[in-house]
Amino acid sequence: MDKVTKGTTKKKLVIPTEVMERSGFQKGAPVDILTLTDAVVILKNGMTTMELLNAVDQMKDLSVALLTALAENCDPCGDCGGTEDGSCPYLDHLSGTEVPAEVLQEAGIPAGAKLCAWANPDSGIVNVAQAGYRYDLADVPVWELEILTCMGVCLEDLAELLMSEDQVHV
Fold first, then answer.
1. What is the sign, positive or negative, of the torsion defined by CA atoms of 33, 136, 132, 164?
2. Which of 7, 20, 69, 76 is the most buried (most CB within 10 A)?
3. Confidence of residue 82 (pLDDT cuts 50, 70, 90)
4. How far apart, in Å, are the Cα atoms of 58 and each of 11, 33, 46, 98, 155?
5. Which pTM does this prediction carry?
6. Taking every pair of C-alpha atoms in the chain, what is the biggest distance, in angstroms?
7. Alpha carbon distance 41, 31 (integer Å)
8. Given CA atoms 104, 165, 93, 142 in this order, what sign does their dihedral have?
């Protein structure tokens, strides 16, 4: 798997012929362009079984490489006071208390906004406010969390990377 970084203009992206040929594309042959969130995939139009299997295998390799790049930006799990059943205590952050939509609306918090909560132990009141971030562990597909956990990634570090939105892949 080769990586070629290419600039774009406001109107187009030109993929060099030698890049397409290295991937087995014929000059002038039609292609299928699949738009994904934060990615674009170009496939041959009309693939044989083996071509399709090769593409699937290479995309699996790409997925592993991307997850590894993400894992390299996190510290290893330090077993930070795990629970009796051995689960990560940071996964508790995935289950939150529901706040009724009308209460959020009354507070001026948009529906679907991330929330944070803190308690006042003296009064017994729990305060809820709109969080200052867009993403957290709840936005990560479960299968990816399971893989990253198996890779030994500290989920607290992962959560901090999500909330900061710092660039982790170049």
1. negative
2. 20
3. low
4. 29, 17, 18, 41, 27
5. 0.73
6. 73
7. 10
8. positive
Q: Is the pLDDT of residue 112 over 80?
A: yes
- Residue at 150: amino acid letter: C
Spatial distance between the Cα atoms of 107 and 131, rounded to a whole number of angstroms: 13
Give the pairing type, strands 39-44 and 31-36. Answer: antiparallel
Structure-token match 């080769």, residue found: 2
Residues 112, 132: Cα–Cα separation, whole Å: 13
Q: What is the CA radius of gyration of the chain?
A: 22
Distance CA 124, CA 18 (A): 67
pLDDT mean over 77-97:
68
Q: Please report, for residues 51, 58, 88, 99, the alpha-carbon distance to residue 63 in angstroms, rounded to integers and kept in the order given.
A: 18, 9, 24, 36
Mean pLDDT for the stretch of residues 57-68: 93
Question: Which whole number is the average pLDDT over 38-59?
Answer: 93
